[in-house]
C-alpha cells in the first residue's frame, strides 16, 4: 500500500515540474509599457524642416540672389583688402580697449573716492553716447583743437603739432572704437574680479604676497573664467560694429560693399558678400573663444570635455571599428581541405 506521504495535495505541482505563480493583480512588472508619443514635438519638427527646406530652395532657385555675381566679388582684391581693414580696426580696438578697460575696472574697485568717481563718470558718459556720434566727434577733432602740444599745465607750450598730422582718419576711428569699447570692457573685467572669492586675497595677503602679484597670479587667472564668455561676445559685437566707421569713409568691408554696389547696382549679391564674410569672421572668433575658455577652465575641470575635433576623431574610430567587425562577420569560411 502506498504511503500517504507520496500523495501530492490537490493543485500542487508534481515532482520534477515547476510552475510560476501568477502575477499579482497590481504587480508593476505585469504592466505594459507604452512609450510617450510627442505629437506636438513631431509636428513642430516637421514644420521647421519644411520652412528650412523652403528657405534653402529659395536661395538656390531665386535669380535675385545672383550667385554668379557673388562668386565674382567674394574673393576680389577690393573686398579682401576691406576685410583686412576690418580686422585691423577690430584688433586695435580690442587690445587697447581691454587694456584701458582693465585700468578703469581696478580704478572702480579702488578705495580712493577720486579714482572711483573718475572711472564711474567715464563709463557713464561713454556708455551713454552712441558709437557713431563718438566717431564723428573724433573725426572732427581738428575743428576743436587745431594743434596738440606738450608743456606746463595752464602755462607755456614747449612743443606742438597740427592735430590732423597725428590723428588721421584711421587714427580717429581707432580712438573712437577704443574709448567706446573700454567703457564696456571695464564692467566686464570688474564683474570677473568680483566673482573671485575675497578669502583668497586675504590668504595671499597673510602670506605676504605683494598686491600686484596677487592680481596677476591669483585674481586674473580665476576671473578669466567669468570674463571670457562676455568678452568674446563683446569682441564679436565690436567686429560687426566696425561697419559704423563707414561715416568716416574708411575702406572697411561694409563701406567697400556700398561703393561697389553703388557703381554696378547689384545690391543683393554685394550685401550677401558682406554677410558671408561677417559670418566667417565671427565663426573664427567663436572657435578661438572656445579654445581660450577651455584653457582657462583647466583649474576648475580636471578632465575637460573633448573638443569638437576630438569628438569627430572618436566618432570616426567608432565607425571604422564597426565596419571592421561587420567585415569579420561576413567573411566566408574556407572549405575543409583547402590549404590556400
UniProtKB/TrEMBL annotation:
It is found in: Cell membrane. It is a multi-pass membrane protein. SUPFAM superfamilies: MetI-like. Keywords: Amino-acid transport, Cell membrane, Membrane, Transmembrane, Transmembrane helix, Transport. Residues 83-289 form the ABC transmembrane type-1 domain. CDD domains: TM_PBP2. InterPro entries: AA_ABC_transptr_permease_3TM, ArtM/GltK/GlnP/TcyL/YhdX-like, MetI-like, MetI-like_sf. The keyword Ligase does not apply. The chain crosses the membrane at residues 39-59, 79-107, 119-145, 165-186, 235-255, 267-292. Residues 1-27 are annotated as: Disordered. Belongs to the binding-protein-dependent transport system permease family. This is Amino acid ABC transporter permease. It comes from Streptomyces parvulus.
Amino acid at each position: 500500500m502506498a504511503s500517504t506521504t507520496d500523495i501530492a495535495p490537490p493543485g500542487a505541482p508534481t515532482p520534477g515540474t515547476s510552475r510560476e505563480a501568477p502575477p499579482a493583480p497590481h504587480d508593476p512588472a505585469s504592466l505594459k509599457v507604452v512609450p510617450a508619443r510627442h505629437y506636438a514635438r513631431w509636428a513642430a519638427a516637421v514644420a521647421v524642416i519644411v520652412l528650412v527646406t523652403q528657405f534653402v530652395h529659395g536661395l538656390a532657385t531665386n535669380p535675385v540672389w545672383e550667385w554668379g555675381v557673388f562668386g565674382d566679388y567674394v574673393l576680389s582684391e577690393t573686398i579682401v583688402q576691406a576685410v583686412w581693414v576690418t580686422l585691423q580696426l577690430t584688433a586695435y580696438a580690442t587690445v587697447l580697449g581691454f587694456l584701458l578697460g582693465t585700468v578703469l575696472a581696478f580704478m572702480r574697485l579702488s578705495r580712493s573716492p577720486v579714482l572711483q568717481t573718475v572711472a564711474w563718470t567715464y563709463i557713464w558718459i561713454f556708455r551713454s553716447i552712441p558709437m557713431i556720434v563718438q566717431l564723428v566727434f573724433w573725426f572732427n577733432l581738428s575743428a576743436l583743437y587745431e594743434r596738440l602740444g606738450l608743456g606746463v599745465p595752464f602755462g607755456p607750450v614747449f612743443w606742438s603739432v597740427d592735430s590732423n598730422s597725428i590723428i588721421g582718419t584711421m587714427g580717429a576711428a581707432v580712438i573712437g572704437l577704443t574709448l567706446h569699447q573700454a567703457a564696456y570692457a571695464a564692467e566686464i573685467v570688474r564683474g570677473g574680479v568680483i566673482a573671485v572669492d575675497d578669502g583668497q586675497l586675504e590668504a595671499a595677503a597673510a602670506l605676504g604676497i605683494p598686491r600686484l602679484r596677487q592680481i596677476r597670479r591669483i585674481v586674473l587667472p580665476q576671473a578669466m573664467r567669468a570674463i571670457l564668455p562676455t568678452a568674446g561676445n563683446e569682441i564679436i559685437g565690436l567686429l560687426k560694429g566696425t561697419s559704423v566707421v563707414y561715416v568716416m569713409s574708411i575702406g572697411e568691408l561694409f563701406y567697400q560693399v556700398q561703393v561697389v554696389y553703388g557703381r554696378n547696382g547689384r545690391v543683393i549679391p554685394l550685401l550677401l558678400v558682406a554677410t558671408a564674410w561677417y559670418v566667417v569672421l565671427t565663426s573664427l572668433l567663436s572657435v578661438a573663444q572656445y579654445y581660450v575658455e577651455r584653457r582657462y577652465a583647466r583649474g576648475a575641470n580636471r578632465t575637460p570635455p573633448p573638443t569638437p575635433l576630438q569628438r569627430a576623431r572618436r566618432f570616426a574610430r567608432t565607425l571604422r571599428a564597426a565596419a571592421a567587425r561587420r567585415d569579420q562577420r561576413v567573411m566566408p569560411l574556407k572549405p575543409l581541405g583547402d590549404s590556400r
